[in-house]
Specification:
With 598 residues, this protein is mainly alpha-helical. It contains 28 helices and 2 strands. The chain has a two-stranded antiparallel ribbon. The N and C termini lie far apart (61 Å). The mean pLDDT is 88.
Length: 598
């Protein structure tokens, strides 16, 4: 089978997801079982994978789905507990004192707080924290999910204290050897030096492309969820949005250059949050027009809310100190940061290693090379549950109120289980499709190789999209980098450009792929009771992914080919064209809105 035909066949499970979930708007609970069936058929009859390997991959998928459901449960439990204690109303009032404008709130919570949480924990945790918090503050659930998915781009490459670079790229490039051996072959002293170079390049591209993410976030919010369905209302805060972007991306890029891959998102998000909160309190760059608000909840369309969160009446608790109200989220932030540290001065063992030492493993499932490990203390779900228990004690809740939160959270997770229990096994079979009698590469690599055969020297334009597709399928920037970094490096060498820039494009695209990752969307929707709306969310986040991958690829092409073509090359022209089209579209929509208002 030719590489092009093999790539086309490998896209069948993805195409089924696209057609059923995004095109026909089927719920994931119906679309994903069919996608799982298709990948099993391909693995068994085309790739000729042993049935035991397919079963083992499916079991690993079920284990991973269980981990995701635990994270979802913990996030919902914390939100419901804060609602029952009255802390959520206090938090809502505190943000209203900073700015009652929803456009400002979504930038602060989703972009800045979300970036900090991503830097601390990664693995989709920002959606589990920011999305329910936004809903608790009065955002429509669909708007909250959309915001939570859009910001899972710029900070993701350095999520979980740099895991996608330190583990993903390192393991991917090392192959069967070590990253130090690989770096030595490139004339570098250590693997750490190589990862520092890649990380800095990743941060540079992200800081450039991601600077428009807060503005796009606000514009999509006003366009899809505003009273007037207007882009113009989002553009009104362009100064504040660009300021908030720079407050995060400038420290982010600086930290990547000076310190390496561990702390760009964590410190960039934290410093950005501190700067923007202080500026917001003083009214710096805040819009002078009327405060922007969603329509009254009584007029929200059904698809904005889904099943909703089954809240009981919240008790009045206006006297609760603000620090007490926020303390569970502060505890989450502190525990996530501490639990992800690989080394702490004065300690013989790292917190990360200590928590991972309590683990349940199933090695060589059904006699295959596939294994599954669960470290329950390390999962963010445990942090969320501890924060909920902390809130129960500190907020002096009655057990009856706390039990209501537990019951509501359990029912919400039960509704999400069907979709995740078919989505993640599909992903694992897709990823573990090598070693079959047919001798083909695993499906993701076969897909990437087919694209390379078609585009040749234009590959840098497509490298981020391939990385993004890998992350969208695998549900992880880290896994995408592990799977594709060496391939991307080899392609860079083959076409005669700096291969480390191509690896950097892979990492950037892998981060952007989280915006359209099916099981991340399923989990985010589950947190706020939007089961069945996954396709609708991906339809709205897909343009963000295309913008991100397209602009990053154009910049990458301009960088790697500048010595041959100069700076005025097709990459620069394409990047300018993407930005021009984006601005022209927003300007045209604004003019259309103004003409209809006359």
């Amino acid at each position: 089978m030719s590489s092009t035909l093999m790539a086309a066949v490998a896209t069948i499970p993805i195409a089924i997801v696209g057609i059923l979930l995004v095109g026909l708007r089927w719920p994931a609970s119906r679309a994903m079982p069919l996608s799982y069936l298709s990948v099993v058929v391909l693995a068994a009859f085309v790739w000729q994978i042993p049935i035991t390997q397919i079963m083992a991959a499916s079991v690993k998928g079920l284990v991973t789905a269980g981990e995701l459901l635990y994270i979802v449960f913990g996030a919902i439990l914390l939100l419901n507990t804060l609602h029952e204690s009255g802390a959520l109303d206090r938090i809502r009032n505190s943000l209203g004192n900073i700015s009652p404008d929803r456009r400002i709130q979504v930038i602060i919570i989703a972009w800045l707080f979300g970036s900090f949480i991503e830097g601390a924990a990664g693995f989709g945790t920002p959606a589990a924290v920011a999305v329910p918090l936004l809903v608790g503050l009065g955002f429509p659930p669909l708007a909250a999910v959309l915001a939570g998915m859009i910001i899972q781009s710029t900070p993701v490459s350095f999520g979980a204290v740099g895991t996608p670079i330190l583990i993903g790229v390192s393991s991917g490039l090392a192959g069967e050897g070590t990253i130090d051996q690989f770096a030595s072959g490139l004339g570098m002293e250590t693997g750490r030096e190589l990862l520092h170079v890649v990380g800095w390049r990743v941060a540079l591209i992200h800081a450039s492309v991601g600077s428009l993410v807060p503005l796009l976030l606000v514009c999509l919010t006003t366009r899809f969820f505003g009273e007037h369905r207007s882009w113009r209302e989002g553009l009104e805060v362009w100064k504040f949005a660009l300021f908030a972007a720079g407050a995060m991306t400038l420290p982010y890029a600086t930290v990547a250059f000076l310190l390496g891959p561990e702390f760009p998102s964590l410190l960039g998000g934290l410093l950005g949050l501190t700067i923007v909160l202080r500026a917001s309190r003083s009214g710096f760059l805040l819009p002078r027009g009327p405060t922007w608000e969603f329509p009254p909840s009584s007029r929200w369309p059904r698809h904005w809310t889904g099943a909703g969160l089954p809240y009981s009446a919240s008790p009045a608790n206006k006297k609760m100190p603000l620090l007490h109200a926020w303390s569970p989220y502060l505890l989450v932030a502190v525990l996530l940061v501490l639990s992800r540290q690989r080394a702490v001065p004065g300690l013989d063992t790292s917190p990360e290693r200590l928590l991972k030492s309590v683990a349940f493993s199933w090695s060589n499932i059904f006699g295959t090379s596939i294994s599954a490990t669960v470290a329950p203390l390390y999962l963010p779900g445990t942090v969320f549950c501890l924060a909920a228990l902390f809130a129960w004690v500190v907020h002096r809740m009655r057990w009856s109120r706390f039990s209501v939160a537990w019951g509501a959270s359990t029912r919400t997770v039960a509704r999400a289980s069907i979709a995740l229990l078919s989505t993640v096994p599909m992903v694992q079979v897709f990823l573990n499709s090598d070693g079959g009698a047919a001798g083909y590469e695993k499906m993701p690599l076969a897909l990437a190789m087919g694209v390379h055969q078609l585009v040749g020297s234009l590959w840098p334009l497509f490298a981020p999209a391939i990385g993004g597709l890998g992350a969208a399928i695998a549900g992880s920037n880290t896994i995408s980098n592990m799977m594709l970094s060496l391939f991307q490096f080899n392609v860079g060498e083959e076409i005669g450009v700096d291969p480390l820039w191509v690896v950097a494009l892979q990492a950037v695209g892998g981060a952007a792929g989280n915006t359209i990752c099916v099981h991340n969307v399923v989990a985010a929707c589950a947190v706020v009771g939007l089961i069945g709306s996954e396709g609708l969310v991906i339809r709205k986040t897909l343009p963000i992914f295309l913008y991100y991958a397209g602009l990053a690829g154009s910049m990458g092409y301009a960088i790697v080919w500048w010595e041959r073509f100069g700076w005025l090359n097709p990459g620069i022209l394409l990047a300018v064209a993407i930005l021009f089209i984006l601005m022209a579209f927003l300007w045209y929509d604004r003019r259309q809105h103004e003409s209809h208002s006359l």
